[in-house]
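Why does residue order matter? Because the sequence determines the fold. Keep that principle in mind as you read this record.
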Amino acid sequence: MNKLGWRLVTGIAAIVLTVFLVLPLLALFLRVSPFVLLSRLGEPMVLDALRLSLLTSAAATLVVVVLGLPMAYVLATRDFPGKRVIEVLVDLPMVLPPTVAGFALLMAFGRTGLAGRSFEAFGISLPFTTAGVVVAQVFMAVPFFVGPARAGIAGVDRRLVDAAATLRASEAFTFFRVLLPLASPAISAGIAMSGARALGEFGATITFAGNLPGTTQTMPLAVYLALQTDLDAAVVMSVLLLAMAFGLLLGLRSAPVGWFWGRHARRATR
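Structure:
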């Protein structure tokens, strides 16, 4: 195939895929007028689901970053027995059916589950609670952060790490002042993807936490319920979720984040 033919084939494939991705999103926006969209955003069901989604997804993303960043660092910088098994376990929620993930969480943290019995002894119950929503979102969002963060840390020039070591910098200092700033674009992308995944989580949430208005009914669950009774409300919430996810991905992948951290990394390695 000559150069022109190759460009034609790849161009057509890219256009077809773009149309395929844009068409469903465009259909959502064209289904409801801006006036109806704005007027229905103030409905109690929408506001309650929105508030709960923002709260739980923010909490889940924070937990994912706090626990996932050390895991990404360990996987990127160390070799140890069983590493491949840990890598598979970290990635497993990404390919596991969400309902299976929710059922597994129920078997682990339910009242008669492996860890649930211990929690019950302390008066802690996770299923069908707001905390249970966060647990389900964390479980499903972890691989979307650890993967990019690990790749970003592993991609840092090892000569910079070695230079810090020769200057007797501690491992913690090297992590925070060298690795973290230089890997920040990948880490930011991981935060965006995990946050968006937590925001859109449905299957594990409804299985493990239920669909209780004001307690566990996040936006995706509210959309599912509205599809059966109020199509316009489902469209409004779907458009809102779409806009939030798009804004999250676009905002956290913006250039200023990488520039800010990269500036500090250059200072640390001088």
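Residues 1-31 form one domain.
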